[in-house]
Structures are given as structure tokens and as C-alpha cells.
């Protein structure tokens, strides 16, 4: 089994009103879950992490615990920082991000393999739209 997660987070003002958006797709490219959540007053990096965390929580609810060990996941994001931190190429220094990094490591540990890939913003437009919709709901 394989899934692809497109995730994005944003904050207007950084920090400011923040939102997380993600889409989980199956191996055929069908959307099987999505996330669009207002996060209150946060930083952009917090929102980026939260988008992936929320997507993995949705995915964990879809894939029975006994099958997660046979499931591959590809995470596509336009946040080079989060991708490089999750690959171990950059250290996580900020205390708030350390907590999120630890939460995400715990969530991904249940799956067979998880690959983080940096993609241009144009290839992440669905997740970006969900994050922006969450921010719009939060500020209106």
C-alpha cells in the first residue's frame, strides 16, 4: 500500500493567523482524506509541521494498525526547511518545532517507509488552497 501526502501551512504576518492544509491520496491518485484547519496565532513553520502531523493522524485513522507496517508514504511539501529537518539534513533548534518534530517522528514510525520530498509551490496548490481556506475562516 502506498499513499502520498501533499501538505502546506502558512501564517499571515508570520507569526499571525495560521492555517494547515493537506491532501492524502492513494496509489491511484484518489483523494482519500483532507485537512483544512485554522491554527490560531502561529508561525509559518509551526503551520507547516502541523499540516503534516494532521495528515498523518488522518492516514492513521484510515490504515488499520496492523497494516501500517506495510505502508509506504511520500510527503510532498514546498517547505524546504521541514523537508530537510525530517530528512536529518538540518537540526531542529526552535523549542516549539522540536516538540512538533518529535510528534511527527512518532507518527511516521508506525509506517514501513516515509519519504519527504521538496516540491515547487505550483505542485502543491491543492494543499496551499486548503491552508488558505483555513486562514480565511479563522480571520473572518
Description:
With 140 residues, this protein is an alpha/beta fold. It has one domain: 2-Layer Sandwich (Nucleotidyltransferase, domain 5). 40% of the residues lie in helices and 31% in strands. It contains 4 helices and 5 strands, in the order E-E-E-H-E-H-H-E-H. The chain has a 5-stranded mixed beta sheet, sandwiched between helices. A hairpin with a 5-residue loop joins strand 2 and strand 3. Helix 1 runs parallel beside helix 3.
Secondary structure topology:
Layout: E1 2-11, E2 16-25, E3 31-42, H1 44-62, E4 72-77, H2 80-87, H3 95-108, E5 113-118, H4 125-139
Parallel strand pairs: 1-4, 4-5
Antiparallel strand pairs: 1-2, 2-3
Helix pairs in contact: 1-3
Rg estimate, integer Å: 14 Å
Tell me, what is the CATH class? Alpha Beta
CATH fold name, please?
A: Nucleotidyltransferase, domain 5
What structural class results from the helix and strand content? alpha/beta
Shape: globular
For the record, the count of structural domains works out to: 1
Give the strand line-up of the largest sheet.
3-2-1-4-5
CATH superfamily: Ribonuclease H-like superfamily/Ribonuclease H
What is the overall pLDDT average? 97
What low-confidence regions span 5 or more consecutive residues with pLDDT below 50? Answer: none
In percent terms, what proportion of residues is strand? 25-35%
Count of helix runs: 4
Task: State the helical fraction.
Answer: 40-55%
What is the CATH architecture assignment? 2-Layer Sandwich
Count all strands and give the number.
Answer: 5
In whole angstroms, the N-to-C terminal distance is 40 Å
**Topology as a string of helices (H) and strands (E):** EEEHEHHEH
Instruction: Characterize the main sheet.
Output: 5 strands, mixed
Amino acid at each position: 500500500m502506498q499513499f502520498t501526502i501533499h501538505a502546506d501551512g502558512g501564517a499571515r504576518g508570520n507569526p499571525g493567523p495560521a492555517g494547515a492544509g493537506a491532501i492524502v491520496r492513494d496509489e491511484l491518485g484518489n483523494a482519500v482524506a483532507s485537512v483544512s484547519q485554522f491554527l490560531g496565532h502561529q508561525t509559518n513553520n509551526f503551520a507547516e509541521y502541523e499540516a503534516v502531523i494532521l495528515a498523518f493522524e488522518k492516514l492513521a485513522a484510515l490504515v488499520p494498525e496492523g497494516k501500517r507496517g506495510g505502508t509506504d508514504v511520500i510527503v510532498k511539501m514546498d517547505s524546504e526547511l521541514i523537508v530537510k529537518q525530517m530528512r536529518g539534513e538540518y537540526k531542529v533548534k526552535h523549542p516549539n518545532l522540536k516538540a512538533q518534530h518529535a510528534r511527527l517522528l512518532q507518527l511516521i514510525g508506525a509506517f514501513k517507509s516515509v519519504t519527504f520530498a521538496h516540491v515547487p509551490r505550483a505542485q502543491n496548490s491543492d494543499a496551499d488552497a486548503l491552508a488558505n481556506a483555513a486562514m480565511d475562516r479563522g480571520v473572518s
